[in-house]
Amino acid sequence: MSRLEDNAMGPEELSGPHPGGADRLGDEPAWRRLLRRARVGVRDRPGYALLGITASLFAGLVAVYGLSDVAQRTLNGLVAGSYFALGAVGLTLVYGILKLVNFAHGDMLTFGAYMALLFSAGLGLPSLVAMAAGVLATAGLGLAIERLLWRPMRRKRAGLLQLLLTAIGLALFIRSGIQFVAGTAQRSLDVDVLASVEFLGLRIGTTELIVVVVGVAVLTLVAVLLRVTSVGRQMRALSDNFSLAETTGVDTSRIVALTWVFGAGLAGLAGVLYAAAAGSFNPNLGFLLLLTLFAAVILGGIGNAYGALVGGMFLGLTQEWSTLVIDSRWKIAIGFVILIMVLIVRPNGLFGRAAKI
Amino acid sequence: MMRGKATHWIIAGALAAAVAAGLAGCGGSEEGGGAGGEAAFDLKVGSLVPLTGGLASFGPPGRKAADLATDVGQKALDNAGLDVNFTVEHADTQTEPQAAIQAARKVLAGGATCLDGAYTSAETIALGNSVAVPQRVPLIAPSSSAPALSALDDDDFVWRTSASDALGAVALANLVEREAGAPAETTVALAARDDAYGEGFIEQFKTAWVERGGGITGPVLYDPSQASFNSEAGQMVSDDPDAYVIIDFPETYARFGAALVRTGQFHPDRMFSNNGIAPGAEGEKAPDGIPAPAIAGSRGHRPWTPAAGEAVEAFDELYRSAGGPARHTYDAQSFDAVVLCLLAAVAAGSNEGAQIKEKLREVSAPPGRKFSYLELADALRALADGQDIDYEGVSGPVNFDERGDPTVATFQVWSYDEGGTLEVAGEIEANADESR
Questions:
Q1: CA nearest to A323, candidates B260, B233, B188, B241
Q2: How high does pLDDT run on average in chain A?
Q3: What are the domain boundaries of chain B?
Q4: For B286, which of A249, B84, B92, B277 is 20 to 30 Å away at the CA?
Q5: Which chain B residues touch A79 with a CB distance below 8 Å?
Q6: Chain centroid to CA A341
Q7: pLDDT of residue B284
């Protein structure tokens, strides 16, 4: 089973939560048995457990704050969550296959947004065409960086630390480059960010609605492609064991290049959509989002595409729900509190697997 | 005959002058340099300006104002016959506290003993703690408005010619009361970016409004780096408040404002704010990215020099005819800071920082004869004669209080029209004595 696949089954149970305590099971009080069952449930069925937690959070909030407020926040949470999920999935794809923590991912989002700006405001292309061109340009950037930087680094057998530091340097390089060319002023794509649609008393921005729909559609497509296509299977093989995949005849060089094209393209898409929906951005767009993207990736289980989608959505929902309960200034911090709580229960993230030696 | 008489007069005059000088000299030594008189010294003001970084647009106008003040000061010194060589040295603070400290050390090494700067409150607080107090050099900030500066344990070495946000909040409460209605019948929804600037100002406004018996909701504080602002916008408009007060910068308000419009319940003509979202000149469009429907009809105030008055008009003329950068918020405050350095030094008869700071309150506030910079030579003569004066600045009467803040401040009232173009309409004043 691959890390990139839905791993809702979790690892098979090797031992009970209280090793050697089986003989006392009959004596344990009911609450303890319930707790133990809940822990086993959370460990073995993280998908269902998360669904249960989310549903009970929702029900609890509705009971206290009323349906209409909570429903509106839920919608807001799905909007924020789709930004996080779109950004996180490229990050987790690159990590899962290449074991590279790509600190430059946030700045690739920014690159996508500025490329769309260049094509629309600079070259006068229609918005949609410009956005598509921005995504392609970012995919191209990913491929170029792979050929010029990562492949030579891999050939020289650079270690994890060197790769990590290189990624941080690359992030600064991309951001400074954008600042140098486009300046630090606020920019906006020619998109209507003021229009909104109303249904059942709930409101969502028209552009935001498009982002949510496109986001969920694209992420589902990515997941399906990873599962059914030959390239997807080879990617998963690389993710499981790079050298073994190479030995069995997978053209790793090609698959790695394709991974970068996909990962960077998804970053570009996330950047373009986020910039369009936000309405106004500067060269810090992606960098400011990066920490939350890492949270979504880790929450979902590092290297797991579904995990990034679920993690991003869950973070978005909890952040927006939290504004009902506490001061909205703590919204971002709430995301990290959730992350810590999940990691205490599941150290490898929701859908992650324990590292094998 | 005539000739002999003239000679006698000259000798008598010279003798009188010598005696007077001797007396003044004695007086000076007895009173620890109190009366000044013929004291000859060099005074260098260190001007710490943000030529780069976030406030880079404030740097060149502030530097120019400091240069103008130095010219005006040197001419007045010559007119008054005082043997003081008055100069200024500039250094770039990069809008960064650490760089500001480096800049201050540079000008102090160059011989400066009174500082005009810095601009952000973060820089000024850092300078106060690391330079002004330990090096015993007074610092007069022309644009720092954080209330925290008032409470700084600074042994009277940290001053400012700009109004504290406490005063700005009182002025904004005056404006909301004038335009939106009596506090008892007006509920105001509050929101601000979650940083020292936004939270500091909104808390001061909340205090001022609640003291008048007004109702409030919030404040809603939001992290400028967060991904979406929909929930905050929903909170803001939920109870259909009579007015909104939003303290923000354009880059965040571009997104928060769009989210407010998307709620479908936002009335921009009920919105009030301060200088943060109105940085432009009259007739300019709203800053890049802020959609017009998010700002049309909003009103607010920003620090400014009083529009009328002889000294104000003369300064405007002086500034414009000198060429270089155009007028900018806080240029007059920088001018006043440099003039106050000179006045306090002449009053102290010394260029020592510790002596200068002892005189700053005296020369800025009543009692004493009032002088504007147009009568600077007379003011200097009066100080040299040991009289107390009250400098009336270009930015306002200044009148330092016991915390080193100006007591009275004038704010310019701005509004955005339907198309999002900035208009300027009159001014509003706040007096710290009223707010207590």
A1: B233
A2: 85
A3: 38-164+308-407, 166-302+410-435
A4: B92
A5: 228, 230
A6: 18
A7: 84
A185 CB neighbours in chain B (<8 A) are 288
SS3 B54: coil
pLDDT in tens, B213-265: 989 998 999 988 888 999 999 999 988 999 999 999 888 899 999 999 999 89
The Cα-based distances of B268 to A115, B122, B228, B299 in angstroms read: 33, 31, 20, 9
Residue B124's identity, in one-letter code, is T
B166-302+410-435: CATH homologous superfamily? Response regulator (3.40.50.2300)
Least Cα distance to B94 among B130, B135, B126 occurs for B126
Nearest to B347 by CA among B46, B106, B114: B114
Say how many CB pairs under 8 Å bridge A and B. Answer: 96
Residue closest to A299 by CA, chosen among A252, A343, A353 = A343
CA distance B178 to A229: 68
- In angstroms, the CA A254 to CA A230 distance is 13
The answer to whether the Cβ–Cβ distance between A194 and B258 falls below 8 Å is: yes
Closest C-alpha among A83, A118, A82 to residue A216: A82
**Closest chain B residue by Cα to residue A190:** B289
Measure CB to CB from residue A76 to each of B220, B222, B228 and give the nearest one: B228
Q: Cβ separation of A83 and B235 shorter than 8 Å?
A: no
Fold of the CATH domain A46-345: ABC transporter involved in vitamin B12 uptake, BtuC (1.10.3470)
Q: Which residue ranges make up each domain of chain A? A: 46-345
A201 contact B CB<8A: no
Which member of A186, A208, A278 has the closest CB to residue B288? A186
Q: How far apart are CA B339 and CA B390, in angstroms?
A: 12
Q: Which of A216, A215, A194 is nearest to A206 (CA)?
A: A194
Q: What is the pLDDT of residues B7-34, one digit of tens each?
A: 565 565 555 555 555 444 444 333 333 4
CB atoms within 10 A of CB B352: 17
Residues on chain B touching A282 (C-beta within 8 angstroms): 251
User: The tokens of A122 are what?
Assistant: 């600079």
Flag whether pLDDT at A13 surpasses 90.
no
| pLDDT tens-digit series, residues B153-174 | 899 999 999 988 888 899 999 9
- A266 CB contacts (<8 Å, ≥6 apart)? A86, A89, A90, A93, A218, A222
> What phi, psi does B118 have (nearest 5°)?
-95, -165
Q: Does A199 touch chain B (CB under 8 A)?
A: no
B98: number of Cβ within 10 Å: 12
And the tokens for A295?
């949270």
Which amino acid makes up residue B336? Answer: D
Least confident interval from A12-21, A149-158, B246-255, B259-268 = A12-21
CATH superfamily of B38-164+308-407: Response regulator (3.40.50.2300)
ipTM value, please give it.
0.82
Q: How far is CA A115 from the centre of its chain?
A: 22
Looking up tokens 């005849």 gives A249
Measure CA of the first residue to CA of the last residue in chain B; give whole Å: 71
Closest-CA distance, B66 to chain A, in angstroms, reads 28
